[in-house]
Amino acid sequence: MITWLTQTERDLPALPPAAWLSLPEQERLAALRVEKRRREWLLGRWTARRLIQRHLAGAGLACGPRDLEILAAPSGAPTISARRPALQAALDGWHLTISHSQGRALCALARTPAIGADIEQVAPRHPAFAGDYFTPAERAALAAAPPQRRDLLMTAIWSAKESALKALRLGLNVDTRRVECHIAPSSSGAWAAITLSCDPILEAPPLRGWWRVSEGYVLTLALGAA
Hints:
Largest sheet: 5 strands, antiparallel
Order of helices and strands: EHHEEHEEEHHHEEEE
Low-confidence stretches: none
Structural class: alpha+beta
């Protein structure tokens, strides 16, 4: 099971960050010097909190933003801590993934550490991008696509790779051509399947993937076995 949420910068609260971030999170924010990066980071943490609050409300538990702390594990994956034992017990076994792009954030929760999500604004990329990062089969799919859909398909393939590599706790530390993505057709607003194949050298578990288009952005999810 995956639960997910997207938000924009308009959803950020008017409250100062110190009113809802833990002290370690405030220290992490202070270390970010570029304003755009600070806004993206804050949006990701706020969206994650709103998603977690919604998840806990489904279990009959009230939770405020200051009841939660979201820090990065050594792998870079976000980890959730809760101040109250009842909240922590309800979150045990649930794993979080965060992504942001151009003023929007996507967060997802699942009962497996092999969860990855990515959001990307659909935009043109130089043709050399595919040559550098895509497999021959992915490049062939791009070449076969109608010209008016190539920017969308290139964005979807790239986003799917990011989600898969997040799910594997590898990020962009490995060659993105180690993961091959086959994107099923999707209508706007509906989730469609992604077939994800990993190079045996990664020793990766089987992954499933999904994607959708929303207001000019591609959203992708990748999930491993629980």
